[in-house]
Design brief:
By secondary structure, this protein is an all-alpha fold. The protein has one domain (3-73). The chain contains six helices and no strands. The longest helix has 14 residues, at 23-36. It is elongated. The chain starts with a helix and ends with a helix.
């Protein structure tokens, strides 16, 4: 995957150019970025491309932290909610 595929609208690139951008703003941009990817795109691969392109030169930037957090795989909940969760307890 190349940089153009990884950031089709240039949202991440622009976020690194904004001085004083906050973590909350980066998170909002991240959501917009994720929605702009093509269906079925490998988001982890795209994030890695963007971190290599922009994150290595700006390790303390809030977008670097946001992209890094985007690589974390959510854990599967162990408890089921609702009626089934109460019956199995």
């Amino acid at each position: 995957m190349d940089r153009t595929e990884a950031d089709p609208k240039g949202l991440v690139r622009e976020s690194y150019a904004i001085e004083g951008i906050t973590l909350a703003e980066c998170r909002s941009i991240f959501i917009d970025w994720a929605l702009s990817l093509t269906v079925g795109a490998d988001t982890s691969a795209a994030i890695m491309v963007l971190l290599e392109q922009y994150g290595t030169g700006a390790p303390d930037h809030p977008m670097t932290a946001t992209l890094t957090a985007g690589l974390d795989v959510p854990t599967t909940p162990t408890r089921r909610g609702g009626r089934l969760g109460r019956q199995n307890a």
